[in-house]
Amino acid sequence: MELVGDRYLGGVMRGRMEGFGYYTLPMGTEYRGSLWDGMFHGQGELRRPTGGAYRALWDRGLPTQGKYTFTDGLEFDLEKWLYCDGYDRRFYTEISSGFKPPGIAQLTNPDPPKIIPKGCYDCGDGFYNPKTRIVVDYKRKFLRNADDDEHEWILRTCRKAWDLTAEEEPKASHSLS
User: Fold this and answer.
1) In sequence order, what are the residues at sequence separation of 6 or more whose Cβ sits closer than 8 angstroms to the Cβ of residue 99?
2) Could you tell me if 91 and 109 are in contact, meaning their C-beta atoms sit under 8 angstroms apart?
3) Phi and psi (nearest 5°) for 93?
4) Residues with Cβ within 8 Å of residue 127, at least 6 apart in sequence
5) Which residues pair with 30 in a beta bridge?
6) CB-CB contact of 57 with 43 (8 Å)
7) Which residues of the chain are under the pLDDT cut of 70?
8) Dihedrals phi, psi of 156, to nearest 5 degrees
9) How many Cβ atoms are within 10 Å of 111's Cβ, its own excluded?
10) What residues have CB less than 8 Å from 20, skipping those under 6 apart?
11) 30 phi and psi, to 5 degrees?
């Protein structure tokens, strides 16, 4: 069984996905791994189109144990999560690669940061246009429509194009002599 916009390459038994396969969802997320009776079952990995992956042991469609790894290599660990915990606000790249020299700010974890299109926000996995309420990835491919909660969160917390300040050109100095 396939949905509109999805793709599957792998074994089939009784009309269902079975064995090892590659299943791509309509939004580009891909599952690579074992399937049984049309469900994720055994070792498998969900890969996001913007990067990052969730590698897990699945049982009849549900993960029993797994680990999420962000695009930059940061691994999420629920028990030992120390990143951005309120006490240490460094970006992961600052933790793994060190700080920049004084006077050079690091605005986002990816460095240099993405250039935000005019009138939009950088919401972490792409750009958000508050007029259309659409989030696109950094290659401008549609990701999702923002609901009211996400819209308010983005407006309140995310970096926006017009926040970026350009250095003013130096003014000519006037001599008093």
Assistant:
1) 90, 106
2) yes
3) -65, -30
4) 114, 116, 117, 120, 121, 135, 136, 138, 140
5) 24, 47
6) yes
7) 1-3, 82-93, 95, 101, 103-111, 163-177
8) -80, -35
9) 14
10) 10, 11, 33, 34, 35
11) -120, 135
Category of 106 on φ-ψ map: left (φ > 0), alpha (ψ -120 to 50) or beta: beta
Three-state DSSP at 44 gives strand
Cα gap 45→102, rounded to integer Å: 40
Walk across the sheet containing 121-122 and list its strands: 142-145, 134-136, 127-129, 121-122, 159-160
Alpha-carbon gap, residue 95 to 34, rounded angstroms: 35
Express each pLDDT in 142-174 by its tens digit. Answer: 989 999 999 999 998 888 887 554 333 334 444
Taking CA atoms, 111 is separated from 10, 87, 122, 124, in Å, by 38, 22, 14, 13
